Write the structure tokens for this entry.
Amino acid sequence: MTITVEREQIDNGGDDGSRLNGVARQVLNGWTTGRILKKSESGALVIFNTAAGQSITLPAIASRDLGMYFDFLVTVTGTGTYGIATSDAGTFIIGGVDSSSTTVAEGGDTFAAAGSEVAILFDGDTTGRLVGTSIRLTAISTTQWAVSGTIMGVGTLATPF
């Protein structure tokens, strides 16, 4: 389900430039099967909130799409897999995520996506499917998404890549 809000936005008459007022971002949630994000949804907050799991496919990146980004947030602890995949086998994820564990002295790791990964899988309590996992993916080339954020888990955490 897509929630959009229309608001007044532009003031382009002053000598100090344009103003953009009343902006609200899209919040995407509530789907139960795989979903392909649209380029026009760039900037949206994508919420994983179905415990059985949800999957997302990122849009393909053209050169005019550089800077397109999506934020992801887990709001319901999963029992299935929350997955994010690139659009094809030739588009990769680079960067990394920090980790926090609800178990004392088990968090604090950083997991790197070295550039050969095509998916992020929050498929266990140790790989980020707990409430609070929050990441951002940004298109930085026609074949790369940069990832940053924090995964939440319990116990000895593991890579979601």
In short: The mean pLDDT is 88. The chain has no helices and 14 strands. Residues 2-153 form one domain. The two ends are 27 Å apart (CA to CA).
